[in-house]
Amino acid sequence: MRPSALSLRAAACALLAACVTRPAPVPDAAPAQPPPARAEPFALSDLKAAEQSMLGARLALAARFDGAPATEIRWIARVGERELGSGTAPLAAGPEGTWCALLQLSYGSAAADLAPFQAQETMEVVVEAAADAGGTERRDTRSLHMRAPHIPEVYMLSVQASREPGNNAALDLTYLLAAKNPNLFDVRASGLHYTAMLGGREVSQGDLPLGDRIPAAAENTWEIPAVASTENMGRDFPAKLRSAETMPWAFAGSLRVGGIDVPVDLKGELKLSKQ
After folding, report:
1. What is the pLDDT of residue 168?
2. Structural domain range at position 48
3. Which end of the chain has less Cβ packing within 10 Å, N or C?
4. 85: which DSSP letter?
């Protein structure tokens, strides 16, 4: 049986409809992206403390350049209004495309110079730097929080006295001096200038050379010997030893530690043993 003209037309329409390419659905438009930020011609990228001492610190400064780098930077470092250093530092190639410089800070050379730092645990060092980039001087600022330098504490652990039985004419003394380093870095004690007193009389004085390291957050001690006798205490010294229960002592001078002379002015009472 031959298909009718109506059925052939229906089949052709169905085949045509199946072969027509349907347009793909249009996806939602992506949100507009902001243009990439332009790199700064000169920018400070990092600031770290390389080393620190009682006299100052050395900072490592890193910078980036969008283009040919400069050969040096001009810088100034401050804590608050106080300037700790300034100058010109050469730049050397560093990691990951940075250029690095070492900056030397100075806290001063006397205990009085460090006095403003004693009441604070940390300090904020602000570095302002300038460099030639793209034919123009460019500036940037970077800050760093670091431990403030603290003056070592000097104190007397004890004053000890001994004498031979029956001897009321002389007293052997030992002044046990100590210094505690509160910093996170080691310091070195290089010398002690002192005068030791007992009962208001000088029993020893001098300059004691030292070469001892005081570790971070630790202490070191020194024994300073002296002799109290009728020669330096007077003829009535034996009578005082027999009658007195205590006698005032004093120890004054300066301890040179970390390159700074730390004043020493200590007083106390020595308990005398009866014989």
Report:
1. 74
2. 42-147
3. N
4. E
Kindly list the distances between the CA atom of residue 235 and the CA atoms of 32, 151, 170, 171, 178, in Å, as whole numbers in the listed order. 101, 42, 11, 14, 33
Distance CA 260, CA 242 (A): 43
- Give residues with Cβ within 8 angstroms of 82, minimum separation 6: 116
In this structure, what CATH number is given to the domain that contains residue 116?
2.60.40.10
Tens digit of pLDDT for each residue in 171-222? 999 999 999 999 999 999 999 999 999 999 999 999 999 999 999 999 999 9
105 within domain boundaries: yes
> Do 172 and 241 fall within a single domain?
yes
Q: Please tell me whether the overall predicted TM-score, pTM, comes out greater than 0.85 for this model.
A: no
Q: What is the pLDDT of residues 43-85, one digit of tens each?
A: 999 999 999 999 999 999 999 999 889 999 999 999 999 999 9
In whole angstroms, give the CA distance from residue 114 to residue 182: 14
Q: Is residue 8 part of a domain?
A: no
Beta strands in the chain (DSSP E): 42-52, 56-65, 72-79, 82-90, 92-93, 99-106, 122-133, 136-147, 153-162, 170-180, 187-198, 201-214, 219-229, 246-257, 260-271
> Could you tell me whether strands 92-93 and 170-180 are parallel, antiparallel, or unpaired per DSSP bridges?
unpaired
Q: Please give the tally of structural domains in the chain.
A: 2
Residue 25 in any domain: the answer is no
Q: What is the token pair recorded at 139?
A: 């500036």
DSSP string, 157-188: EEEEEE--TT--SEEEEEEEEEEE--SSS-EE
Distance CA 75, CA 64 (A): 15
